[in-house]
Amino acid sequence: MLPMQNIKLAVDAVVFGYKEKMLHILLIKQKFGEQKGKWALPGGFVKDEESLPSAVVRELQEETGVSISFLEQLYTFGSIDRDPRGRVVSVAHLGLINPSNFVIKADTDASDACWFTLDDIPNLAFDHKDIIQVGLERLRSKIRYQPIGFELLDREFPFSDLEQLYHVILGEDIDRRNFRKKLLSYDFIKDTNKKNVNKPGRPAKIYCFDKEVYERLERSGFYLEIKFV
pLDDT digits over 168-200, tens only? Predict the structure, then answer.
């Protein structure tokens, strides 16, 4: 016999972006309910016919206009008093995008949508501050052994942008010489034979990430390990 329950299932999206050499989080402003006017993570209730990933994709599209390629389940948040509307269990998902590829547009139950730096996050609804922290910890851990950082960069980039990205996310100094030497020894970072002539000084080579090469290496047992000093 099934137990009597009055539990709602929701999803929340912890979407990080990288711009102006800073890590940002995508937030929406609540349009309705007890949390009206408060900023929150994009998300909402899961429909009966939906999978969890489908629900996250839909909520992001409806509330921010963002479509996303990198998305993975992060953690389940189920504290009894986490939502004033009743018992709501939220399955949070981690997402990564390049903000320059999207125009943010609030819709449905969001009155606004905006990128915030991690040092400028406003007072948030529900337990979303805690959810963001868990997402940040996952990002900092995973970027050390999977090339997910390329989701945050332009398709083509000078190597210094990749170094800066790792420094910003981890808040650690990089042994730049070894970092560069190690990553360029793998075939999944390709020299495009282009140079960045828009900055002063010696023109920098432009690179791109070859996802197919990386996935082929991964299937053969390759393990990426990034170490810092």
Answer: 999 888 888 888 888 888 889 999 999 876 666
- d(Cα 64, Cα 192) in Å, to the nearest integer? 33
Helices and strands, counts by H and E, the chain: 5, 10
What is the 8-class DSSP label of residue 91? E
Rounded to the nearest 5 degrees, what angle is found at the Cα of 13, between the Cα atoms of 82 and 227? 110
Q: Any bridge partners for residue 95, and if so which?
A: 15, 71
Query: Quick one: DSSP state of residue 82?
Result: S
Q: Which of 90, 94, 64, 63 lies closest to 79, judged by CA?
A: 90
Q: What pLDDT sits at residue 73?
A: 98
List, for residues 31-84, the tens digit of each pLDDT value.
Answer: 988 888 899 999 999 999 999 999 999 999 999 999 988 999 999 999 999 988
Question: Distance between terminal CA atoms of the chain?
Answer: 57
Contact 34, 61 (CB under 8 A): no
**β-bridge pairing 8-19 and 88-97:** parallel
205, with CB counted inside 10 A (0-12, 13-18, 19+), is middle
Cβ neighbours for 14, distance < 8 A, ≥ 6 positions apart? 25, 41, 74, 92, 93, 94, 95, 131, 132, 134, 135
Q: Rg of the chain's alpha carbons, rounded to an integer?
A: 20
DSSP for residue 105:
-
Question: Can you list the positions of beta strands (E) in 78-149?
Answer: 88-97, 110-117
Using CB atoms within 10 Å of the CB of residue 199, give its burial: 0 to 12 exposed, 13 to 18 middle, 19+ buried.
exposed
